[in-house]
Amino acid sequence: MTLHYSNMRHTLSVLVENKFGVLARVAGMFSGRGFNIDTLNVAPTHDDRYSRITATVNGDTQQLDQAIKQLHKLIDVIEVDDLGRGQFAARELVLVKVAADGGKRTELLQICEIFRANIVDVSQRSIIIEMTGRQNKIDGFLEMVTPFGIKQMARTGTAALRRNRKLEL
User: Fold this and answer.
1) Contacts of 118-123 spanning 24+ positions with Cβ under 8 A
2) What is the overall mean pLDDT for the chain?
3) Starting from the edge strand earliest in sequence, which strands make up the sheet with 36-44, in order?
């Protein structure tokens, strides 16, 4: 029996050759299939000939399987892994500048301690905080600091690797 889930969140790891235009072709394939990319993270691997694209998308499992087949057909794609089909480690990074003058700082620092966030810059009127974790942890942290007043925010997409993998590139 095949289970058919609609609109599930999928995390894909796509190992590609580190060449001009590869990201545009991969992203274009997703948009051409009607997938909205929720997060996208791209960086070279330990071998600078390759980059790893980690994309989180919401979509139908059957459509995603078709998209994965299309990704395999792209010339510069080496490997495609649907990380949701096994155990994987995933993290995001957020930098957030929060209003923090006077009496607010102590409470804000306590929230940072609870979430294991790091203060990376302090000024008279704001604090820049760095936090890494799974998406739900970052969402929870942002929910707690929003009442203080978020001035700016930069959030990476998910970076993920499969656990206990036999083939390593």
Assistant:
1) 120/95
2) 89
3) 36-44, 50-59, 8-17, 77-82
